[in-house]
Design brief:
182 residues, mainly alpha
């Protein structure tokens, strides 16, 4: 009876060892695929640092988790930086082109939507432009607020058109003040 039980236990142990062996082979294959399909650098180092007691040559699952967390950190910090740049409250100085500022906001809007599915619409851009308008463009700010209060449409194209002449006048004034240098 004891002999039969020992034989059954040995069979069970052999099955377990065979499963472990298969798992080790599969892990080694997946780990090798993971590492060979990556460009050398930080992520590769992260993969090679992913060793466990069960997989001293490298654990594919741990490597994958480490890589995902690193990529997630990079992506979330980039998203945060883009949002902060979009929502910056630094006043628009007179030497900076409002049209270029609006274009930069459009770029950020596209990146946030494309990469992170974070939607900022034209109204958000208009609000941001109004927020950062400094003392250089008070009449434009007032015109836009008046237009909004009377429920007339305010578009980015309308705002861009409002800035063309005042910005060119400011550039001309600045260049004259500096002695004609541009």
């Amino acid at each position: 009876m004891k002999e039969k039980r020992r034989q059954q236990e040995d069979k069970r142990n052999q099955k377990i060892l065979k499963k472990i062996s298969n798992i080790n082979r599969e892990n080694a294959r997946v780990f090798a695929d993971l590492v060979t399909n990556m460009t050398p650098g930080t992520l590769t180092r992260l993969a090679f640092q992913s060793k466990t007691e069960e997989f001293p040559e490298g654990c594919a699952g741990t490597a994958w988790k480490n890589i995902k967390s690193k990529i997630g950190e990079v992506m979330s910090s980039n998203k945060r930086a883009l949002k902060e740049e979009f929502e910056s409250s630094k006043p628009l100085v007179s030497g900076k082109s409002p049209a270029k500022y609006i274009n930069r906001l459009k770029e950020i809007q596209f990146k946030l939507k494309d990469k992170y599915n974070y939607v900022r619409d034209e109204e958000d851009i208009i609000d941001q432009v109004l927020k950062v308008l400094g003392n250089s463009y008070p009449h434009i700010k007032n015109d836009i607020y008046t237009r909004r209060l009377s429920f007339k449409p305010v578009t980015l194209e309308f705002i861009r058109a409002q800035f063309v002449e005042p910005f060119n006048d400011l550039k001309l004034y600045d260049s004259k003040r500096r002695g004609g240098k541009k």
